[in-house]
Amino acid sequence: MDFSIKAFDTKNTLAAAKSGCVAVAVFENKKLSQAAKALDQTGEITAALKSGDITGKAGSTLLLRGVAGVSAARVLLVGMGADEVVSEKNFVTAVNATLKAFASLGAADAIIAFPTTEVKERTPEWALQTLVVAANEAEFRSDAQKSKKEPAYSGVRKITVAVPLANTQTKASLAQAIAIANGMKLTKELGNLSPNVCTPTYLANVARKLADDFGFEIEVLERKQLEALKMGSFLAVAKGSEEAPKFIVLKHMGGGKKDAPTVLVGKGITFDTGGISIKAGPGMDEMKYDMCGAGSVLGTFRAIGEMGLKLNVIGIVAACENMPSGRATKPGDIVTSMNGLTIEILNTDAEGRLILCDALTYAERFKPAAVVDIATLTGACVISLGHHNSGLFTRHDAAHDALAEELLQAGKEAGDGAWRLPIGEQYNEQLKSNFADLANIGTPGGASITAACFLENFTRNYTWAHLDIAGTAWKSGAQKGATGRPVPLLTTFLMNRV
Ligand code: BES
Ligand code: MN
Ligand code: ZN
């Protein structure tokens, strides 16, 4: 999809614009938006509303051809609800309906002239990003591994967004929105790939390619090096598999030489069988998505690389498979993590925290300004928050409250929400082991929280937050597929740190 922005005055230039289609908003009770009024030169749009052919309800559409006084071949009327101060939900619904209509239009190009400055509690940048992300979603195909490809998207391919003022700032906002959409696309493709293809080695190769394309520094640590670093916890998970573990470190040094970096740490379990504590059969295929934390780190790097973000960012991906085998870790095994804490592995299916704890210890060497880990960590997070918000966990002190606020705010701005849950000493006590410093599962209750508390033990030397994306990284059922979340949240968070 090709995007550009252009300023139109709502009087005559929009009516005079040559295009395959102009999409404008109309409202319930037969009200026209400013842009619709500009196209209503001879009252045809008013007449269409009067006729009842379009209700104006959010998402309703009506295509008119050859509207008198309008140079564009078609006018698409799009309902945005009752209120001219548009709700976020109605705007999103209208955008999706527009792109659905565009997908089956005989036009190659179109102008979208929506009231992007009139969305309740949302900025024009948000509206622009919503448009770009939705357009890329409409174009997205998950047929990389099908021998017969799905019919390619054949609708409108060139969209001009009408804005009141097209200056360098609005152009930068558009470029940022496109970069985020491209990052999400990579994250989705990696998530959807089958686990026999998307192995730790594959992720390392994707990271190398990204480093090449965008000028990141990269280092991929192999098993021997991980042994030398004493990553006993990560290696305990990796050793059940024939696939070689990979520990990927990407550096985007876009900031000042001496500026402390922001570090992202992604869980990259390319398949989670549960190990010896094996999972139930039905739906187990979805555990190919257990690398979506890693995928979101790579997608976010894709986005900040394209933007040339002026910030120092380090991405760490701990990648391996969690498999049962003669060499696999057994329940009751005790391992020593990189920071010296011993861990009793009571359940080999709680493997995410076992690989992340060593990655979080490794992150100390960068003297980070902040560390955010991203993981499909617990099924319990899907129970508590469903599929709308990612779970956010940090310590409860002033510095961490500020980091939590930054992440929550970024999620709001990006339409990629998170919700904070508590951690603390009482929950931490649920992780006591009779035989090691720490058990890898908690006593029953609050499983997402005790998982976060486990990680907290390894993050005491810097400011840290944890995002549990088990409910937001992919969709199940007929619409099964990765969502590209939380790339918008993470990228916006980093952009706001510049
Ligand atoms: N990758 C899973 C978490 C998960 C499960 C995410 C289902 C999304 C859907 C993780 O490794 C896991 O298995 N967690 C266990 C932890 C338990 C053993 C304490 C879980 O959530 O059941
Ligand atoms: Mn697991
Ligand atoms: Zn897992």
TrEMBL record:
Positions with a binding annotation for Mn(2+) 1: D272, D349, E351
Enzyme Commission number, as recorded: 3.4.11.1, 3.4.11.10
Keywords: Aminopeptidase, Cytoplasm, Hydrolase, Manganese, Metal-binding, Protease
Binding positions for Mn(2+) 2 per the UniProt entry: K267, D272, D290, E351
Catalytic activity from the UniProt record: Release of an N-terminal amino acid, Xaa-|-Yaa-, in which Xaa is preferably Leu, but may be other amino acids including Pro although not Arg or Lys, and Yaa may be Pro. Amino acid amides and methyl esters are also readily hydrolyzed, but rates on arylamides are exceedingly low; Release of an N-terminal amino acid, preferentially leucine, but not glutamic or aspartic acids
Pfam family, one: Peptidase_M17_N
A single MF term (Gene Ontology): aminopeptidase activity
Classification via Gene3D superfamilies: Leucine Aminopeptidase, subunit E, domain 1, Zn peptidases
Cofactor: Mn(2+)
Catalytic residues (positions): K279, R353
Domain of life of the native organism: Bacteria
Localization of this protein: Cytoplasm
Enzyme class: hydrolase
Location of the Cytosol aminopeptidase domain: 347-354
Cofactor note as given: Binds 2 manganese ions per subunit.
HAMAP family in the record: Cytosol_peptidase_M17
Function: Presumably involved in the processing and regular turnover of intracellular proteins. Catalyzes the removal of unsubstituted N-terminal amino acids from various peptides.
Family from the record: Belongs to the peptidase M17 family.
Protein name per its UniProtKB record: Probable cytosol aminopeptidase
Lineage, broadest ranks: Bacteria, Pseudomonadati, Pseudomonadota, Betaproteobacteria, Burkholderiales
Underlying gene: pepA
